[in-house]
Design a protein that fits this description.
By secondary structure, the protein is an alpha+beta fold. The protein has 7 helices and 17 strands.
Length: about 325
């Protein structure tokens, strides 16, 4: 069984490969009657697309989205919404004859399926995340009162933005790459979304974020820092009117939203496709050095913020519909 879908009531499926003719998503479970056109989706895709600066992949993809179904006269119909994004600037020759790239999904895919698409990583490429951003634009329509904002807070272990350009320049010139941390805040989420035990809101958010290419860790609220506090320090004191004196929990307790801002941080590893030689093996098992040429992000996390926002929107929209189904 192949898992290419996510969600319960609002469910989306992504499809396509980095160097195939197109990528896309099907969003099912969206309520009818919501205003939706391609421009409403495109504004979010434009924040993620490559080729916009020296610090991202120079691949020139316009990422123009087409709505193929589920919308009539500018309104959602309640039927599956099919979204298409064509690939127009793939250069498959850059991947000809490459050995398994350490840190990438090449070896694991080959071991699992016995076959893989080596062109840009195929399905494991971060190119797939454009489809998530398109699906996330639909999810935002379901939660209009929620504001979701993500930003880079750390590159290469450094939280000072004034040093990021020089760090990226050094890594790029050395044929290397850097990791990043994204912080995302969702404001306006009412208390009560999420369900105990097996559909916890924080568990679903963590799963959604961890499913993003290159993500290796997720924190909700204080995250790992909470383990270094005492209970008296970590507890968020309640005040009259249902307000809180702090937000160590990141807006979620018992798997259910508290009405505070939901805060999560997502760690992106350094890009695996680099020009620095790394010991590896080829498909015959011979030891070789892997050197990846072509066009890649020196820090894939820089374009990760719109993707994190999209996945948070998809989870929150799904939980809004779940809450409405059970509690009215």
């Amino acid at each position: 069984m192949s898992w290419n879908s996510f969600g319960r009531v609002l469910r989306f499926t992504t499809w396509g490969e980095s160097h195939g003719p197109a990528i896309g998503a099907v969003v099912d479970g969206c309520p009818p009657g919501l205003a939706l056109d391609e421009a409403a989706i495109q504004r979010w895709l434009d924040l993620r697309r490559p080729g916009t600066s020296k610090n991202v992949s120079p691949r020139q993809e316009p990422d123009q989205v087409r709505i193929l179904s589920g919308v009539y006269e500018g309104r959602t119909t309640g039927t599956p919404i099919s979204l298409l994004i064509e690939n127009v600037d793939a250069r498959s020759r850059d991947y000809a004859g490459l050995p398994f790239r350490p840190g990438h999904a090449d070896y694991a895919y080959q071991q699992k399926y016995g076959i893989r698409d080596p062109r840009g990583g195929g399905r494991s490429s971060a190119r797939e995340t454009a489809a998530r951003v398109a699906a996330g634009a639909v999810a935002r329509l379901i939660i209009p009162d929620v504001t979701i904002a993500a930003r880079v807070v750390e590159i290469g272990g450094d939280p000072d933005p004034s040093r990021w350009d020089s760090l990226l320049d050094e890594a790029r010139e050395a044929g290397d790459s850097l990791g990043a941390v994204i912080e995302c805040t969702a404001s306006g989420v009412p208390a009560g979304w999420g369900t105990p035990v097996y559909a916890k809101l924080d568990a679903d958010l963590a799963a959604a974020a961890m499913s993003i290419n290159a993500v290796k860790a997720v924190e909700i609220g204080d995250g790992f820092a909470a383990a270094r506090l005492r209970g008296s320090q970590n507890a968020d004191p309640l005040r009259a009117g249902g307000t809180f004196a702090s937000n160590h929990a990141g807006g979620i307790t018992g798997g259910i939203s508290t009405g505070q801002d939901i805060v999560l941080r997502v760690a992106f590893k350094p890009t695996s496709s680099i020009r620095t030689p790394v010991p590896s093996i080829d498909e015959q098992g011979r030891e070789v050095d892997a050197v990846t040429h072509g066009r890649h992000d020196p820090c894939v996390g820089i374009r990760g913020a719109p993707v994190v926002e999209a996945m948070v929107a998809l989870v929150l929209a799904d939980h809004k519909l779940l809450h409405r189904a059970q509690c009215g």
